[in-house]
């Protein structure tokens, strides 16, 4: 068996084409384009690269990005104040705080300073709760992108056993909620789970989101499973890809799988936030 590749680049490009159309219609109706504010703290090279990439995608979709770069020495109180300013700014539709922030900062406090109506990256407690209860909040961008990628290939998870390896509040936990809402039976594992190989071996769907390169061995994969690798360290994901490709029915590449879907979801939700914003004026 050779796994069919779930092409995140092509799927994200199709989503961004629709986003571009929505932006054009929004601009015609409201005389402006949606605005995404990005907040970057410190000089981490990878974070700078990610923010530049998101700004470029914004521009390509006809949207506007506003970039706020802050010194790594600032305090949590100062960071929260700057984010609250963006939350209160009527010219801003969506806010993205680039993760991770420097270790001395309280990242959760900073996330919670984002107005849930502008939380297009789905990182606040309010967004998580609305997702869990099916109340229409913004999903965390990567989990939302994963579900959109499965949808693009008409892959249903209903009735299937899904194993999520990872428990972060912006990836592992929310993707479990989204899968549960689609009638999957969900098991959440992590790097300290005993007999992880046995749990993975029973999974019809594997979501690898632990941030541990090659943690999941290809030999563990159940023949015919759907495998989504959301890990990324250089060009290595959380799954041992060559061996997994011999057993899985569907597999995301690294890079080119989940990453492009995250950005596409972020921009789609920014347009949705702008539409809601205008409806409340």
TrEMBL record:
NADP(+) binds at residues 166-168. The keyword Amino-acid biosynthesis applies. The keyword Oxidoreductase applies. Pathway: One-carbon metabolism; tetrahydrofolate interconversion. SUPFAM superfamilies: Aminoacid dehydrogenase-like, N-terminal domain, NAD(P)-binding Rossmann-fold domains. Its EC number is 1.5.1.5, 3.5.4.9. Pfam families: THF_DHG_CYH, THF_DHG_CYH_C. Transmembrane segments: none annotated. Residues 140-277 form the Tetrahydrofolate dehydrogenase/cyclohydrolase NAD(P)-binding domain. InterPro entries: Aminoacid_DH-like_N_sf (IPR046346), NAD(P)-bd_dom_sf (IPR036291), THF_DH/CycHdrlase (IPR000672), THF_DH/CycHdrlase_cat_dom (IPR020630), THF_DH/CycHdrlase_CS (IPR020867), THF_DH/CycHdrlase_NAD-bd_dom (IPR020631). Belongs to the tetrahydrofolate dehydrogenase/cyclohydrolase family. This is Bifunctional protein FolD. It comes from Amycolatopsis rhabdoformis. The gene is folD.
């Amino acid at each position: 068996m050779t796994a069919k590749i779930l092409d995140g680049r092509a799927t994200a490009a199709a989503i961004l084409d629709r986003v571009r159309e929505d932006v054009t219609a929004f601009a015609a109706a409201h005389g402006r384009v949606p605005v995404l504010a990005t907040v970057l703290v410190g000089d981490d090279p990878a974070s700078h690269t990610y923010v530049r990439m998101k700004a470029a995608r914004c521009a390509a979709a006809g949207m506007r990005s506003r970039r706020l770069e802050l010194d790594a020495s600032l305090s949590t109180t100062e960071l929260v104040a700057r984010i609250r300013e963006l939350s209160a700014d009527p010219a801003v539709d969506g806010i993205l705080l680039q993760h991770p922030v420097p270790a001395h900062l309280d990242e959760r406090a900073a996330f919670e300073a984002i107005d849930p109506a502008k939380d297009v990256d789905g990182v606040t407690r309010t967004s998580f709760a609305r997702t869990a209860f099916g109340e229409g909040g913004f999903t965390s961008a990567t989990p939302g992108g994963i579900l959109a990628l499965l949808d693009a290939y008409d892959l249903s998870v209903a009735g299937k056993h899904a194993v999520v390896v990872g428990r972060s509040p912006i990836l592992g936990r929310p993707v479990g909620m989204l899968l549960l809402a689609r009638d999957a039976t969900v098991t959440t594992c992590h790097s300290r789970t005993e007999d992880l190989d046995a749990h993975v071996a029973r999974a019809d769907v594997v979501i690898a989101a632990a941030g541990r390169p090659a943690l999941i061995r290809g030999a563990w994969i159940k023949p015919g499973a759907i495998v989504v690798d959301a890990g990324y360290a250089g060009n290595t994901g959380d799954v041992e890809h060559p061996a997994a490709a011999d057993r899985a029915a569907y597999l995301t590449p690294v890079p080119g799988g989940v990453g492009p879907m995250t950005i596409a979801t972020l921009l789609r939700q920014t347009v949705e936030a702008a539409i809601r914003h205008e409806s409340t004026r």
